[in-house]
Amino acid sequence: MKNIAVVFNGGTISMKVDPKLKAAVPGLTGEEIMAMVTGIERFAKITSYNFSSLPSPHITPKIMLDLSKFIKELAEREDIDGIVVTHGTDSLEETAFFVDLTVDTYKPIIFTGSMRSSSELGYDGPFNLATSICTAIDEESKNRGVIVCFNGDLNSASEVVKANSMALNAFRTPNFGPIGMVDNNRVIFYRNSIRTSPINIDSIDCNVSLIKCVAGMDSRFIDFCIEQGDRGIVIEGMGRGNIPPLMVDGIERAIKKGIAVVIVSRCFEGRVYDSYGYHGGGKELRNLGVIFGDTLPGQKARIKLIVALSHTQDINKVKDIFEHGLYAY
To answer: CA 275 → CA 245, 281, 304, distances in Å?
Structure first.
């Protein structure tokens, strides 16, 4: 029987409704949550760890790094075969992606949580935890990077997004779909995900901002980022990675200051590409030195840029990390 570490890290899965506030707040310990996962002792030996009880909007990149280091220490132990991490859903995709970028292990790492608190009918926390443990003990889960498990669906942390604010199947993968599923305690994988060597970082030492493009936008937000000393800016552009023309001068100023600028699309699906040659089009941005973020949404491109800039100050290496999948140097 395999040994699985379950790291409790707050979020809705650990919440119940406070009768005075009439709203969900942290209230359950990891042990109390595990007690609801009945029968799991027939599948794995569980050791629980309480990392935090934070709501997910309280998570920061520095906390992500601390969690990443904690997970790495667990993964290096010979007596642990897999790791399940609970997390609030609002920032789960960012933290899971951060861990995917920074922890190098063949052992399964599964992120999960719940969309409903323990005070609501249909509390999904125990089910998600049970299916995550089933995934963590499965041999086929090895060497797949971090996996996100919700509602029986398995998605790669490098691809998944929270696509709905309330549905039990809120976590979905645009473009490609899930990598597998858990059915009747059996883990079934339908496709592989691309896995590259993670980036080793010891600290978070950079500020990266995210700016979403809308019609008629100018460079004011970009100039503010420059003034604040940001080392990186992610632009959520239109369509294939195009921006309003009044933003071009700001991007050019940022690049001349040595700031890494990454372009992604505000579209839910599709990738950015230098298809268009008009003023503000992707071809002009490419020629200015903007880095293209492929299919990443803005929030995940920001996480990747934070990790990349914490690893190297060489913009060319940052470009390689984004555009050629070269993580380790």
So the answer is: 16, 8, 24
Tokens 């406070």 sit on residue: 18
Q: How far apart are CA 100 and CA 93, in angstroms?
A: 10
Q: Which residues pair with 263 in a beta bridge?
A: 235, 292
Q: Which residues, including other chains, have CB under 8 Å from residue 266's CB and lie 6 or more apart?
A: 212, 213, 236, 237, 238, 298
> What are the beta bridge partners of residue 227?
none
φ, ψ for residue 30, nearest 5 deg: -60, -40
Beta strand 180-183 with 186-189 is antiparallel
Residue 119, classified by CB atoms within 10 Å of its CB into exposed (0-12), middle (13-18) or buried (19+), is middle
pLDDT, one tens digit per residue, over 6-41 is 999 999 999 988 888 888 888 898 999 999 998 999
| Average pLDDT estimate for 132-144 | 97
Provide the whole-model pTM. 0.95
